[in-house]
Amino acid sequence: TTTTTTTTTTTTTGQAMTCLAWGDPHFETFDGQKMNYYGTGEYYLVQSRVLMVQGRYTIDKRWPKASVMTGFAVGGAVMRGHRLVFENNDGVATVLYDGKPILEEFPSSFNDDVISSRFDKTVSSHKRAKNKQGYLFLLPNGVTLAVLQYQSKYIDLTVTSPRFPGKWEGHCGNFNGDKTDDTADAMLGRGAKADVEEGDSMFVTHAPNTKSPDLDISDCDPKARQMAEESCDGLDNQNHYDACVFDVCLTGDPDLEADEEDLEELAEGWWVHRLVDKPVQVKRGTFLGKVQGLEEFELDLTITPTSAQKGWRSILHMTDGPHYKNCCEEGNRIPALWFHSETTRLHVRMSRAGKGNDGCDPREELPLGEPTQVKVRVQGPYLVVFFGTRVVCVSGNYAKKYSPTSRVAVLGSDSWYEPADATIADVMYYKARPLPVGEMIGRVPVVLERGQLLGKITTFEMFKLEFDIKPTGKLDGWSSILHFTKALHRNHGEEGDRIPGIWFIPKTNRLHVRVSRVGKHNDGCDPKPELPQGEVTHVTVKLAGPILTVRFGDKLVCSNNNYKEKDPGRTNVIAYSADPFYDAAKAELSNVIYEEGNDYPHGELVDAPIKLERNHYIGTVDSSANYELSFVLKPESKQPGWRSIIHFTHDMTRNCCNEGERIPGIWFHSKSTRLHVRSSRGGDGNDGCDPKDQLPLNKETKVTVRVTGGKMTVLFGKKSVCETKAGRYKDPFKAEDRVAVYAADPWHAEADAYLSKLEYKAL
After folding, report:
1. Which among 481, 455, 453 has a CA at the least distance from the CA of 582?
2. Residues 113, 81: contact at Cβ < 8 Å?
3. Please, which of 139, 237, 253, 437 could form a disulfide with 143 given CB 3.0 to 4.6 Å?
4. β-pairing verdict for 643-649 and 749-750
5. Closest of 398, 424, 401, 405 to residue 324, by C-alpha
6. Over 70: is that where the pLDDT of 738 sits?
């Protein structure tokens, strides 16, 4: 059995929001609803295809009336097949990543292509927080989990995520912007089930569920309630106060005055340096603060230019101590941003080992009077500049990075250049999270934009890529549609740079499809017909066996059978729509699906009877110059025009009459059941032998076509009905690779007949 891996849609919608879980446990959902759950067992906090978070609730013997959250597990598409499990056992935390312990020492970190994690001090001042210790997990696609660990069994947790399309349920709510349907009663009313079944548990061992008891403040002893009210007095709002009173009342522990403010701090405060919040005018020499420098980081800021000025214009400059110089030693610019003279085009400089003034300058200017979110990221071997989610510049020179100190000064702008006429806002500096999981474009059409990064995907030796595209215009140059490449900065020149890449040819809506293979990094297949402008066309690019094919709908428009040695499957492949190396095609894209493909069938081609259909692709065979083809045919009527029965060809886009395009091809003559049998030979791509006898209607006849000994012979049963002169086929055509088999072909209407027992063998 072949397992098919498919990459489909999970485009994010809206801004990231946070779900809070604290106490015994209380929840504030993504939409802001407060709810409680006091049962034990395993439950979904988040249940979606992209992000799956399961929570474990258990009883602490000191507080037997209600459960507390003691652990969680994370899976879903965002984890790319990995699994994260966290459990707190009486203040001793265990963190497992794919079953192996991580973050065992304090402080410590663990990073790979999927997860960036830390075990470190937090900003929480909660009385029972264990030495102010916490855990941070940065996942792809904007997902963050932050954990506050306590001396006893329980934990507080924040889950921050954008909303992904599709089903979304769990104790964190359905994340639809309406908090009224996040209550327990509303969840039950729509049939949402938060319980985790044993077979679906992501924990090491499954904990069975018990029903949540109906507890309220009336269950509290009056004396305990008075103590709770005194302990919780002064909290910032009624919801916090009520939750605190309930927790303290049921547990009898005044230190359990859980407060969402602690969790809200966890969502950002201890891993993000927020340097500027609201917009401020850039002024020369403005000191914004000092930060702990990071080798791998992301710097985010929103820039709104007012005008373009002469000379280099400083926006923001981070420089390492102790001397805090401008240029050009290592550490002087980590990073620094300017506008080029008389433009709003960014000049981005970032030190690396061996070069203090390397960097990457986007081509695009920032629009005057409009805010643009700019992100500068150093991660892996890359320096990447984003405008929003679009990659606008990338350098692959950063395998050896500069190692900063804890004394990095942040200036906005610096004192060495005149300031840019611009405001900056939302300036944040933090450890770079992993690149997003590559998720394709879904049903809603997306207008292509240059440098749109879909994320990382896994590619396959054989694959099928499908998409719907509606061209809306034409550009003078090459224009990008989709591009899968082995590295962020790789466009062209090496194997793996285009696996595949798809563009429009200049001044047309004609596709340029490139798929790297061993020995030829830029091979491919370009269909001749253009896509119709203003209309949606379903395109399929398929690599199976040695053949690359392109189809528009069901119509084969291009093939290349040179793919005997294919590019191997790769991990961490970068997916763009469109890439940052060319202008984006003027088009809308939707329903993009990339999946692992299977080889074409071969061997016995047809056994049981099948009704002939036009463009019915059967599979491939290993061809031979001398061969025997046999089949059983039952005609049911005679039709006008050439009627296709079987067609073997080494070029799936060609019917006739080059050598190799009919090896053999078999038809009925118009308005008859007389066979037209063609098989290529040296010097004649359309030679053959046509029997004079017609096949009987509604009866089965075994037909054999044999090329051997320098001649072609056709037999009905054991009777020879046609034979060429000896020596005519002394040089029969031999394909270099397997050939395609149709029954019937795409170029003619099908014969009205049933075909069975189709076999091919070399002689």
Report:
1. 481
2. no
3. 139
4. parallel
5. 405
6. yes
For 142-180, letters b (16+ CB in 10 Å) and e give bbbbbbbbbebbbbbbbbbbbbbbeebbbbbbbbeeebe
Where on the phi/psi map is residue 727: left (φ > 0), alpha (ψ -120 to 50), or beta? left
Checking if the pLDDT of 127 tops 60, the result is no
Backbone angles phi, psi at 709, to 5 degrees: 65, 25
Q: Which residue has the tokens 């939707």?
A: 590
Residue 188: per-residue pLDDT: 76
Q: pLDDT band for 498, please (50, 70, 90 cuts).
A: very high
Average pLDDT in the 379-396 region? Answer: 93
Q: Residue 329 gets which letter from DSSP?
A: S
> Backbone phi, then psi, for 189, in 5-degree steps?
-65, -30
- Cβ burial of 599 (10 Å; 0-12, 13-18, 19+) is middle
What are the pLDDT digits (tens) for 100-118? Answer: 999 998 888 898 888 988 8
- List, for residues 246-256, the tens digit of each pLDDT value: 666 655 544 44
535 lies in the same domain as 669: no
Handedness of CA 703, 707, 708, 709 (dihedral sign): positive
User: CA 481, 434, 170, 163 torsion: positive or negative?
Assistant: negative
471 residue type, one letter: P
User: Domain for residue 238, yes or no?
Assistant: no
The CA–CA distances, whole Å, from 194 to 72, 169, 191, 371, 375 equal: 14, 7, 10, 41, 37
Query: Do 660 and 752 sit in the same domain of this protein?
Result: yes
Task: Residue 92: count other Cβ atoms within 10 Å of its Cβ.
Answer: 11
**Residue 716 belongs to a domain:** yes
Residues 734, 639: one domain?
yes
- 107 vs 124: CA distance, rounded Å: 16
Q: Is residue 116 part of a domain?
A: yes
- Whether 354 and 407 map to the same domain: the answer is yes
Average pLDDT over residues 25-54: 86
Least confident piece of the model among 270-279, 572-581, 609-618, 674-683: 270-279
Question: Which of 431, 456, 484 finishes a domain?
Answer: 431
Residue of 509, 508, 512, 629 lying closest to 560 (CA atoms): 512
Tell me: do 40 and 128 sit in the same domain: yes
Q: Among the three residues 266, 282, 301, which one is the final residue of a domain in this structure?
A: 266
Lowest pLDDT segment from 47-61, 305-319, 469-483 = 47-61
Domain containing 483: what range?
446-596
> For the segment 430-444, what is each residue's pLDDT rounded down to a tens digit?
888 777 776 677 777
Reported pTM:
0.67
Average pLDDT taken over every residue of the chain: 86
| 654 and 751 together in one domain | yes
pLDDT at 61: 60
- Cis upstream peptide for 208 (omega within 30°): no
Whether residue 575 sits in one domain with residue 453? yes
Tell me, what DSSP letter sits at residue 732? B
Encoded tokens for 185: 């009663």
601 assigned to some structural domain: no
Shared domain check, 351 and 277: yes
The predicted structure's pLDDT at residue 312: 97
Number of domains the chain is built from: 4
Name the nearest CA neighbour of 384 among 427, 342, 323, 432: 432
Which candidate, 338, 365, 361, 347, places its Cα nearest to that of 420? 338
Query: Is 526 buried (19+), middle (13-18) or exposed (0-12) by CB count in 10 A?
Result: middle
The phi, psi pair for 359, rounded to 5°, reads: 170, -155
Helix (H) or strand (E) holding 225: helix 222-232
Cα–Cα distance measured from residue 676 to residue 709, given in angstroms and rounded to the nearest whole number: 21
- 406's CB contacts (< 8 A; 6+ apart) are 290, 292, 293
String of b and e for 284-295 (b: at least 16 CB within 10 Å)? Answer: eebebebbebbe
User: Over the range 10-27, which residues count as b (16 or more CB within 10 Å of their CB) and which as e?
Assistant: bbbeeeebbbbbbbbbbb
CATH number for the domain that contains residue 515: 2.60.120.200
The proportion of the chain whose per-residue pLDDT surpasses 70, expressed as a percent, equals 85
**C-alpha to C-alpha distance for 540 and 22, rounded to whole angstroms:** 49
